[in-house]
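=== How it folds ===
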Amino acid sequence: METRAAVFDSARPLLFSIAYRMLGSVMDAEDLVQDAYLRWQEAPEADVRSPHAYLATIVTRLAINHLRSARAKREAYVGPWLPEPLVTDQAADPSTAVELAESLSMAFLVLLERLSPVERAVFLLHEVFDFEYGDIARIVDKTEANCRQLLARARKHVGTRRARFDADPAQASRLVERFTDAASAGDLDGLLAILAEDITLWADGGGKIRGAALKPVHGASDVARFAMGVVQRFVPAESVVRRAQINGQPGFIAYVAGRPFAALIFDIRDGRIHTIYAIGNPDKLQTLSASH
């Protein structure tokens, strides 16, 4: 018979996947999974009919409570709020299905911010993790009819999900390289050649770094000039750029003295960059590996 620790280890990938998508924070998700482990160790045997369902319930309820308490902080956040970046080309997230990978994208996680904590839980459990209504109802302590209503409302807020993976890896890699080269060289035409006309750049500095835009930057010309200005004025000359897949999307991490300085993630469609998510808030870069 499996030990409790072994059962938990087998469920850990699912629990982290739920927690990260609920919270948009790697650190908070890891803390929450650890909290779930402690509760799991103390759970009376009679309460546990299905270990994985029991653990999913603990994690989801902890995440709902966490989101409720974090709401005031989010509302007072300086500038755009973006999720913590999650490097996905180093098996940081076990999800392999396309639906699961798409649900890691920055655009999708930002859309989830429109939902209440319980709506978010119902939406993710049903649409991403394929839980049945009966299981979801038990997890969030609502009736099945309530859950159907919550899901309908959530779908209305979030809209239709669309796969964001239509750039092949080689093309994406070339575009990211051209972006970094052109921004570093101050090559305006080079940037305009790869940016979509209606591009939007979101910069999350959390009020803690210089140069972060407090509002989204729209349009190819403004985004190109903003990117060049940030590189020229705020990025140290000794910085090192490493390409990475972040939240299932092409991107790169910039390092200064071996420590992450910024992470950029790109939405690429039809051979152009349509959205850039730039995360510079140092609190959100702590789980990224150091550069050696």
The longest helix spans residues 51-75. The chain is about 50% helix and 15% strand.
